[in-house]
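Pilot study result, target chain (109 residues):
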Amino acid sequence: MIMNSTNPPENVINCLQTILDATATGNYDLFLTVGDSNYRTDITKEIFDQVSSPLIPRMSEGYTTTYFGDLKQGETQTYLWKLSFADDGYEFIVRMGMIGDKVNLIWIT
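Predicted structure:
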């Protein structure tokens, strides 16, 4: 499959948006909806809260994502974005891995 480096497939964008919406609102149940069984097991509510808590106030003021591209890593297709905030402060890299149509990893660093 040849992917366009300008934008990932629509289902990938939808998964990322679900994750960001869940993070911005602290909604762990929504966060789990896009993941495979390992994702749902590995990312506990405590881990989710640790990551989302400091991001909620910044995301509520506004944020943007900039797509960097994707990498094939074994069975996982990994997608990379820059996460920027309206406050013009510290930015993050979002790394989301997918196998098929399910997210198997998400890192916001």
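One observation from the pilot: The chain has a mean pLDDT of 94. A full batch analysis is planned for the follow-on phase.
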